[in-house]
Amino acid sequence: MGAALPVGDPVPADGSLPGARIDSRTPFSAYIHVPFCRVRCGYCDFNTYTATELRGARQGDYAQTLAGEVALAGRVLADLGPSREASTVFFGGGTPTLLPPGDLAHMLDAVRGEFGIAADAEVTVEANPDTVDDTVVERLVDAGVTRLSIGMQSAVPDVLAVLDRMHDPANVTTAVAAARRGGLQVSVDLIYGSPGETLDQWQRTVDAAIALEPDHLSAYALIVESGTKLERQIRRGEYPAPDDDVHAAMYEWADAALAAAGFAWYEVSNWARSEMLRSRHNQAYWRGHDWWGFGPGAHSHIGGVRFWNVRHPAAYAQRLARGLSPAAGQEIPDAAARTLERVLLATRTSDGLPIAELDATQRRDLAGLIADGLIDGPVAIAGRVVPTLRGRLLADTIVRTLVA
Question: CATH for 334-404?
Answer without folding.
Answer: 1.10.10
